[in-house]
Amino acid sequence: SRSINLAVVPGDGIGQEVVAEGLKVLSAVLPQDVKLETKEYDFGAQRYHATGETLTDADLEQLRRHDAILLGAIGDPSVPSGVLERGFLLKLRFAFDHHVNLRPSKLLPGVATPLAGQPEIDFVVVREGTEGPYTGNGGTIRKGTPHEVATEVSVNTAYGVERVVRDAFERAQARPRKKLTLVHKNNVLTFAGHLWTNVFNRVAEEYPEVTTDYIHVDAATIYLVTDPARFDVIVTDNLFGDIITDLAAAVSGGIGVAASGNINPSREFPSMFEPVHGSAPDIAGQGKADPTATVLSVALLLRHLGYDDEADRIDAAVAADLTERTGKPARSTSEIGDALAVRVAG
Amino acid sequence: SRSINLAVVPGDGIGQEVVAEGLKVLSAVLPQDVKLETKEYDFGAQRYHATGETLTDADLEQLRRHDAILLGAIGDPSVPSGVLERGFLLKLRFAFDHHVNLRPSKLLPGVATPLAGQPEIDFVVVREGTEGPYTGNGGTIRKGTPHEVATEVSVNTAYGVERVVRDAFERAQARPRKKLTLVHKNNVLTFAGHLWTNVFNRVAEEYPEVTTDYIHVDAATIYLVTDPARFDVIVTDNLFGDIITDLAAAVSGGIGVAASGNINPSREFPSMFEPVHGSAPDIAGQGKADPTATVLSVALLLRHLGYDDEADRIDAAVAADLTERTGKPARSTSEIGDALAVRVAG
Ligand SMILES: CC(C)[C@H](C(=O)O)[C@@H](O)C(=O)O
Ligand SMILES: CC(C)[C@H](C(=O)O)[C@@H](O)C(=O)O
Questions:
Q1: Contact yes or no for B153/B135 (Cβ under 8 A)
Q2: Fewest 10 Å CB contacts: which of A288, B105, B232, B263?
Q3: How far apart are CA B325 and CA B320, in angstroms?
């Protein structure tokens, strides 16, 4: 019989609330014969304050044993900026080699967008997750003096670029439009830019059916607001991916519905799924958070584990729920979760 | 008697056309007693193909003698990506220490924006121009092999950050709302991020009237489309500034009206003024380019040289022209230039 052994990290702020709804929908969608086991972990601000720990080697040993990880949100104003981000989120992505950071954007009919004219938006960003300016390489000399120098080193390898570019070509090939756009800044960041561009062009030869193009990251932000329909699959560097996926989320229904997967395609390590939004401490504990992004992250998780039908059912339930929201009164976090659980079970 | 000794670099693509209109408006706005001398330089793709040169030491010696530089656009598909960008544009910014890269964004009533609901947009981005990931620091080993490693080093100094942060505080202080936002990614790029944040907070103490806040660059792209009215003055790093000013241009009337100044506030070297748009080779030579961004760059140039009244007259002429465009047939590059020249002279 089948089983899913899931690590659950509610985390900080609204993390608890949204993860509860994600699990509710997951239980509702899974067939009877699939045994769902969950284990909750207490990572986040509270544990950091109590113990000084963010993510220990022993924690990583435990997490490794799971099939996947579902995360709510990590981050709290009481912790200095960077401590939990580098100490937990990025540490996990690097330790488990989550090199494919997958972030789909789809604007459903009737869903609010800041853009005029309700444009067609349906693309996926494949963001590199283990290299670029995120490696923590760099340092500071003469800290706090008028002569301080601080560096950040973006590290890019042919190995790291090729595997994520290849993943993006596979995804583009599997979609109806079969189009892949490389986003970088190769006219200024020429060392990294040439590596990305050369690897991209070389791998492209193996995918003659996929149409390719290249745009600079600054121009990409323009297209995301003036002509988002031009995008099908985007592959990009870790930092550019961070920036453009927040913008992509904003134009395609908002950060409340943006899901992401931190994926290790080889399955050597468990992959981690999380909403793109953060812990939103200002609305935490009030039942105001939209759990949709977490529920959609559960769908990405199911797809990664091979439960495609169940993932499709979640996507369809969310689409129906979103398109029917217009004009209705706002619902609480658990009301939205309940509605989605009913839909996927039906 | 007063005089302006201007270096003019039409450059590539639509550069020629838009610069001609910029000069037309400049001549029309200047009082009789101001002597305008211009000297044209042939930098760009053609000279590169003919001589292999982009910007020589002798060129820099000549350019130094001018009061300011007006640039159209540099860049052509016949030149490999990065050659003219690094070899001319960035070389000039670095050689003349253009550390304040000024990019105002203002959405005028009636002007088209991709955003719904015609939001209020009136802010200025102060982008650092001589540091960060733009220094060209970095390199490549094992190029073209499966073991290639390419690095890009972002270099940030207390000296460089403080002077641009100070400039931004001065600008914020002089505006009615007196608000300054630091945009960075200090939760991930912790070395550079802490330097920026610490310098920002320290300088803030000297400007008690200025309200300050901080947002991550990814979140900034969200606010730029959902709540652009929250911004008054933004100060940011070279690369983040590059990215968010293209987005800012897109939402506030388009790249056709986005002006920029590459400013050396000490006036030790001439400052350079250019439209944010590129050379747009696809529409070059057809009289289709909108010269407004260049004309607004001329206004920034005049303001930098102390001709505030003349700069105000250009801004007012452009505002009037833009708000009256709606519903009218498209005009050619020179028709728009003529109309603006008439307005500023009147
Ligand atoms: C919180 C932060 C470390 C993270 C990132 O920059 O990757 C977040 O912005 C995201 O996009 O997942
Ligand atoms: C052309 C390029 C070098 C330049 C930059 O990245 O600064 C441009 O995008 C700009 O914003 O002026």
A1: yes
A2: A288
A3: 9
Do B247 and A225 lie within an 8 Å CB cutoff?
Answer: yes
Catalytic residue chosen out of the listed positions A97, A185, A315, A321: A185
Averaged pLDDT, A83-111: 96
* Nearest CA-CA distance, residue B254 and chain A, Å: 9
Amino acid occupying residue B54: T
Architecture of domain A1-101+258-346: 3-Layer(aba) Sandwich (3.40)
Each residue of A39-93: pLDDT tens digit? 999 999 999 999 999 999 999 999 999 999 999 999 999 999 999 999 999 999 9
* DSSP E strand stretches across B76-203: 100-106, 122-128, 138-141, 149-157, 179-184
Where do the structural domains in chain B lie, given as residue ranges? 1-101+255-346, 113-252
Identify the closest residue of chain B to A242 by CA–CA distance: B218
Atom 12 of ligand 1, residue of closest alpha carbon: A276
Cα–Cα separations (whole angstroms), residue B324 to B70, B104, B106, B108, B258: 27, 21, 16, 11, 18
Topology of domain A113-252, CATH: Isopropylmalate Dehydrogenase (3.40.718)
Is A134 an active-site residue?
yes
A185 is catalytic: yes
Decide whether any atom of ligand 1 lies within 6 Å of the B222 Cβ.
no
